[in-house]
Amino acid sequence: MSDEPIESLEGKTPLEYATTPTMDAISKKAEIGLCHTIPEGMKPGSDTANLSVLGYDPKQYYTGRSPLEALSIGVDMIPTDIALRCNIVTLSDDSLPYEEKTMIDHSSSEISTEDAAVLLEAVRQELENATYKYYVGTSYRHLTIWDNGEVVDLTPPHDILGNVISAYLPQDAHLKEMMRKSYDILNEHPLNIERAKKGLNKANSLWFWGAGTRPALTSFEEKFGKKGVMISAVDLLKGIAVGADMKVVEVEGADGTLHTNYEGKAMAAVHELLENDYDFAYIHVEAPDEMGHQGSILNKIKAIEYLDERVIKVVKEEMDRRGAEYRLLVMPDHPTPIACRTHTSDPVPYMFYDSSNENTSNLNYNEADAKRSGNVVTHGYDMIHKLFA
After folding, report:
1. Quick count: other Cβ atoms within 10 Å of Cβ 107?
2. E strands, the chain, where?
3. Taking residues 120-135, what's their average pLDDT?
4. Is the pLDDT of residue 95 over 90?
5. Gap between the terminal Cα atoms of the chain
6. Residue 81 burial (CB count, 10 A)
């Protein structure tokens, strides 16, 4: 949810502009500051950033994004496997050659998992073989396992929205050919014809990225001495949790979109902390990031307001009502500014609240006040130590 000042918002960021009474109240008794979640020299992905927030130094533990998602899906990789993220994206529906098409939408109108599964099955029937295997993930996010493959340099589709794809296609001839053939399979698929009639973007091409090898994370409990749970709709986050031997809590209606089950996530966290004696709950909300990728200012503001009203407020009120002492950290994993519609490596604002702390502050929780505070966490993976100290 971190962003840059936007002229149409009176020079404010979406976080500054949004109506967030719960975060405003908490901030007056909290520590506000900036945290660098992306190590120098690494790409600002949700993979490296969330590893960092969870206390794992990405330079030590990161082996690629897709292998983490493979853990979530339940694919047991062998050492010679390479995992690839396999997005189902929207390319321009025109008469131009494949290489000259434009990346329209990295999420195919936030396609449902059910629709995506139908389309991926069509691809699987045509393209799957002993070397390349396809696995259904969530929404537009799926997985390909490449037997005896190699970690090749691939471009995330959300980094090239609005661009002609020719300069970003894989150098590997087989990967490029599968992407080209997938367009022929999917563009006129009956499901995509129906989607177009409904005003939805066609999910008409595969896009490979995020290649990596089998991950090896230290157990979260072994590393920190705390029992942790993960609450997320996104396979990447669930995969990190599986790799770290954290409990993954599935919440009905949690789908990674603007209309996810916010209250369900909040109550699941409270339940695990107070009823099941877990020490730590990680509530991951995807909507502000997705709205940043879509370039939707109003929906990004709405996502932040939903986070405030339907997650943070619910958690705080429930914990307070039950008389629990607790610490709460509110922080994005990385910025996704509206202006560029992709991730950046800039530090993110954090808010650290301790229910037993009576300190007062005159700062609000936003990017400008975080910078004004003078508090800086240089290494994102140190933040969790602050939470547990």
Report:
1. 22
2. 30-35, 81-91, 103-105, 132-138, 141-147, 205-212, 228-231, 247-249, 280-283, 327-330, 348-354, 376-377
3. 97
4. yes
5. 26
6. 19
Between strands 132-138 and 141-147, the pairing is: antiparallel
Give the pLDDT confidence of 163-190 residue by residue, as tens digits.
Answer: 999 999 999 999 999 999 999 999 999 9
- Looking at residue 64, its pLDDT comes to 87
Q: Which amino acid is at 286?
A: E
Strands 132-138 and 348-354: unpaired
β-bridge pairing 228-231 and 280-283? parallel
Task: Give the Cα separation of 114 and 53 in Å (integer).
Answer: 31
Sign of the C-alpha dihedral, residues 133, 178, 197, 194? negative
CATH topology of domain 7-63+218-388: Alkaline Phosphatase, subunit A (3.40.720)
Q: Which residues pair with 85 in a beta bridge?
A: 143, 209
Q: What is the mean pLDDT of the chain?
A: 96
Query: What number of other Cβ atoms are within 10 A of residue 255's Cβ?
Result: 19
CB 147 within 8 A of CB 130: yes
Residues 318/321/325/328 CA torsion (nearest 10 deg): 30
Domain boundaries, the chain: 7-63+218-388, 73-212
